């Protein structure tokens, strides 16, 4: 906690309203009265008492124990040569034990209150600070240090916005993973293979958490947002590996041969695709200024998620998918195959008609250069 600011409420104030005419009769003014009060309300050192076992420091207590002692404070008499009698403070001034002027009023539901604003350290965790404050309040209530007639209510809590943002990020990540599994099921048409990808997603996320902890990253809006964006990329390498392994299994190869052959064939492609994605986002880590400060954790989380997906696709997916037997394709898979075959045939026929037209190829090339130009 960096600071605690109290606002509102009544602050005790002892007022000494002196009679100017009586002070003038004693040849005193307000400044003299202030000096007398200041000198009378202090402790004076009384020296040291040396003993064989040690040394004890002493002091003379001179501070006021209560407001009732103020009227008996002597202003003149034995210590003043021009005074004939002892004059006390209560004879020349009126002492009021009251409250200072209320310059700030705090109201909660129409009732007067006191506001306590707690500010955290710059590098402290907001949610952790709020939890500690709530625990301290509960401990004070349990110990009976807060009177029962005093109600403490939270008016503003910055942690609630952070919690909502984190919950939204977690919900988005979970929803993205679920939608990715649904899309994968539509393309694969196999529940078992979809579950393999579904199990690869949390394992890749766990690997991402390990890498984040290694480099000192914490859970916040930026890292969870990057993780939510990276979940869609987690299944790319997995699908490539799974489809190639499925092709080997259609050849009636053994599970070990299919897993080994499929992983060997697409390892280079998976590594190349992962490197391409990393090359697209990693340069943002070298950007300076405010942009680097804002997006460093986001880019790093996406990069670690992509790297984790490559590790899972090259290790876990072949080991699991090789044990799944090849069965007759389901209706969803057959329908998707027909759609893809029709799209491939149509695309092939389109290329056969367009490629002989040389000037059209040149125009398309020039147009692509124009679109990529800054």
Summarize the SSE layout with pairings.
Layout: E1 3-8, E2 12-18, H1 20-25, H2 30-40, E3 44-51, E4 54-60, E5 74-76, E6 87-88, H3 89-92, E7 93-99, E8 107-108, E9 111-112, E10 114-119, H4 126-142, H5 158-188, H6 191-214, H7 221-249, H8 255-281, H9 289-321, H10 331-354, H11 358-372
Antiparallel strand pairs: 1-10, 2-7, 3-4, 5-6, 8-9
Helix pairs in contact: 5-6, 5-7, 6-7, 6-9, 7-8, 7-9, 8-9
Characterization of the model:
The protein has 374 residues and is α+β, with helices and mostly antiparallel strands. Helix content is 59%, strand content 13%. The protein folds into 4 domains: 11-99, Multidrug efflux transporter AcrB TolC docking domain, DN and DC subdomains; 107-157, no CATH class; 160-327, Multidrug efflux transporter AcrB transmembrane fold; 330-374. The protein has helices spanning 20-25, 30-40, 89-92, 126-142, 158-188, 191-214, 221-249, 255-281, 289-321, 331-354, 358-372; strands spanning 3-8, 12-18, 44-51, 54-60, 74-76, 87-88, 93-99, 107-108, 111-112, 114-119. The model is unreliable at 77-84 (pLDDT under 50).
Using only CA atoms, what is the Rg?
A: 40 Å
Please, what is the oligomeric state? single chain
Percent strand equals 5-15%
CATH architecture grouping of the largest domain = Up-down Bundle
Order of helices and strands: EEHHEEEEHEEEEHHHHHHHH
State the helicity in percent bands. 55-70%
- Please summarize the sheet with the most strands: 2 strands, antiparallel
CATH-defined topology of the largest domain: Multidrug efflux transporter AcrB transmembrane fold
* Major beta sheet, strand line-up: 1-10
Segments where pLDDT lies below 50 for 5+ residues?
77-84
